[in-house]
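Annotated sample (chain length 365).
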Amino acid sequence: YALTALYLRLVMEAAIPVNRILVVTYTNAATKELRDRIRERLGQIRLAFLRGRAEEEDEFSLRMLDVLPDRELAIRRLNNAVRGFDEAAIFTIHGFCQRALGDSAFESGLAFETEVLADPSDLLREIVEDFWRREFYPASPMVAQYFLDKKYSPEKLLADIRPHLGKPYLQVVTPEGNADGAALEQAFLSAYQQAQVIWNRQRAEIEALLLKDPSLNRQKYNLKSVPGWLNDMDSYLSAEIPKLDLFKLFEKFTASVLQDSVKKGQNPPRHPFFLACEALKARCEALADYCRHQVLVKLLTYCNAELAARKRRQQLQSYDDLLLNLHEALTDPQRGVALVDTLRHRYAAALIDEFQDTDPIQYAI
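Output written by the structure step:
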């Protein structure tokens, strides 16, 4: 109601043509509703001025009849508005961006003709599949196996980074900071080999401690469960390629878990293997986290760059691009002043109904 009334006042009192009143709302449905409502009200108030009277319940028209005594001038402005209403600048934020970029191709530095790509999913799938081949085919078998063990696929990688695409204002921080991948891999392999050597030499001793040590709480180290854990350790430490995906209860062999699994007042069983497993678990998790985060960061960077390049080649823009491209054009040190100038001259008034104000790009525009 407020937007419609403001719009009519701009037409009638300020004599602004409809193509110079910018209205921005959020959804296509809201845009259509607002356009229909303004068109309908223009017709109603025009009729009121032609008759020289308005219905009692139409307070706005009654007020305008008082405010604008020159009826002929008001009717002329309303006639122009009704006739030219197909040119009314009522858009969603994305529609406004598309119009601004298209109408100001010189100032924005973009191609004159671009097609809006409503759903870039197919293009993104191609890019992620290319990344998968480029990243994992030459990767070390240990790293490739980790991603397969964790059920990763191009689809899962895309799902992980999709919410962060097209947001250049995001700062990417990985938990590992400036960690050295080669050093982490070497530390893991050394820890694996150390545990493997001890296990191969002293397996029977380790088994006896886990099955017979009187200090252990047997609710946590059930005699029926321990043989299965020993078999799991056999498999893990005999693998041709060391796995970054530890088996489910690997922690049962670590010194810290044994420390917390004894009867009250008792000391846990001690063995170099349990300390080796503690170190192996820490090195394994550090390397696995590094690999996962590095792949996701690399993929995000690759997708942002490659998606932009492929869309440029095919003269496509997504909805995110419309926002990013206009923001970039408006803030460009050389082109921005001219574009801002063009838009300020094109529109004499702007009514911003709604936009995503948690999005810094939309807010800046």
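Annotation: The beta strands are 21-25, 89-92, 115-117, 316-318, 349-352.
Annotation: The first strand starts at residue 21 and ends at 25.
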